[in-house]
Design goal:
With 318 residues, this protein is of the alpha/beta class. The protein is built from 11 helices and 9 strands.
């Protein structure tokens, strides 16, 4: 089913969703606050394993990376040190994804909006084969800073790329065995999400959908669905800001984006609509969507008091 207008609308929404970073009034940008670095025992243990055992040195490295990122991209998630939080593993489907990755040499995992890549590095640490893991962000500086943070640019087998999901065609792509084998080659260069259409077993998006308006979220979901292979067990999962009743939310007072938050009932409807349009109603009946609204479990900053719910979700083909 063709929707030629979706791409243009989605891109336009992305381009107009926010004030350019270099045009934000610096007087309204909240200053950095080192006390916001609050790590759980699991997070601290992983970062000590992956970066340095020296906790004082670890915090200095993290703060230095934060300062460089925030100077150019003054977003609340950077200020609150979310780039070193382990968010992905909090999703209920995470253990099953790990096991599937261990047992299926043809599975491919993609993190869209990976920021500095802490979650995918933890995914690999937990057993998902690194050569089958890809991570993408729109901001190349985040990826570069991630390599500096973990000092692994010359040894990480995870393939990172810079690409815009909204540039993808919204039309479904049949699974291509030859294409899949090519992507599974660890030496294969992946530079565009279009190379992965119809090939992925697992897709994760953390704190991504809530950056956009309602219409763009629908277009983004459609494009992510196009990346997913049509086999039982294929999963898209993630988390983002949610509401008990769906609706638009403010944007921290200074970023100027038009953002929409879904609820536990509206989010499944969105995904059912996506798969019904792509594959038909019968196929959509095979798609199980779970959504759970929870209070944020990390430290809430003053500018987040009205953003204190997170929607954890999964979309699985059965």
């Amino acid at each position: 089913m063709s929707h030629p207008s979706v791409s243009g609308r989605a891109k336009a929404s992305l381009l107009t969703m926010s004030i350019p970073e270099d045009q934000i009034d610096p007087t309204v940008i909240p200053p950095l606050d080192a006390t916001l670095l609050s790590l759980s025992d699991r997070e601290l243990a992983f970062l000590r394993f992956a970066i340095t055992e020296d906790e004082v040195k670890l915090k200095k490295i993290v703060s230095d990376v934060q300062g460089r990122a925030y100077a150019k991209y003054p977003y609340p998630c950077i200020r609150a040190f979310h780039f070193v939080k382990l968010m992905m593993e909090a999703n209920d489907v995470y253990p099953a994804v790990i096991e599937a990755g261990k047992n299926d040499p043809t599975s491919l995992f993609l993190d869209i909006g990976c920021c500095m890549g802490t979650d995918v590095r933890k995914l690999v640490h937990d057993g998902y084969p690194a050569t089958q893991v890809l991570a993408c962000d729109l901001v190349p500086e985040y990826i570069a800073l991630g390599h500096e943070l973990f000092a692994d640019a010359d040894r990480s087998a995870i393939r990172f790329l810079t690409s815009n999901a909204l540039d993808l065609s919204p039309e479904p792509a049949p699974e291509d065995g030859a294409q899949l084998q090519s992507i599974l080659d660890p030496s294969a260069a992946i530079s565009d999400l279009a190379q992965l259409r119809g090939a992925l077993a697992h897709v994760y998006t953390g704190a991504l959908f809530h950056l956009f308006d309602k219409e763009t979220q629908l277009g983004l979901a459609r494009r992510i669905a196009v990346l997913l292979r049509r086999r039982p067990g294929a999963v898209v999962f993630g988390r983002h800001q949610g509401l008990q009743e769906e609706g638009y939310v403010d944007d921290y007072g200074y970023l100027g984006r038009k953002r929409y938050s879904h609820s536990e009932t509206s989010w499944p409807r969105l995904w059912k609509k996506v798969f019904a349009e792509l594959e038909g109603e019968e196929f959509a009946d095979r798609v199980v969507v779970k959504a759970k609204l929870v209070e944020k479990f990390w430290q809430i900053t003053p500018d987040e008091l009205n953003h204190a719910y997170m929607l954890y979700w999964s979309v699985e083909i059965v």
